[in-house]
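Data card: per-record layout.
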Amino acid sequence: MITKATLQDIPVLTILINSAYRGESSKKGWTTEANILEGKRTTEEELTQTIQDPKNTILKFTDNERITGSVLLVEKEQQLYLGMLTVSPELQNSGIGKKMLAEAENQAKALGLSGIIMTVISVREELIAWYKRHGYVDTGEREAFPESEIHVSISDAPLEFIFLEKMI
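The structure for this 168-residue chain is written out next.
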């Protein structure tokens, strides 16, 4: 079941998102960033601020009362920005990500927006290919990857964001 996340979900979402992107637990799934970044993917403070902004929605995928997936949606002009699509590492390749993507598209349509845009780290070729199989195209736009105390690069390759877009 896909529903809107609330402030009460933040502790569980923080653990889920960090476990899917960084550290040893993320290596159980195919979407890990552990080979290119260390540190945390997000914090409870960041998620609290995100949920409190009315332009943002975090959707959660719940199965047997356990949150196993989430996605951030941000209203930006005529498009919906999609970020932090997360599926529990041990459940990746089970269709949850595809369901979350479809719900994001439904949300964009319901808001009367023309499409969805996202950024993906350029070296994540397998993930980029997955989005392309779901109708997203590379816009050609690039942006430097922002390093911080949360996002610490351990990659030999320079990191940048590529922009992917799907018109709906």
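Known properties of this structure: Strands lie at 2-4, 37-38, 56-63, 66-76, 79-87, 115-121, 137-144, 152-153, 160-167. The chain has one domain: 2-167.

See the next section for split statistics.
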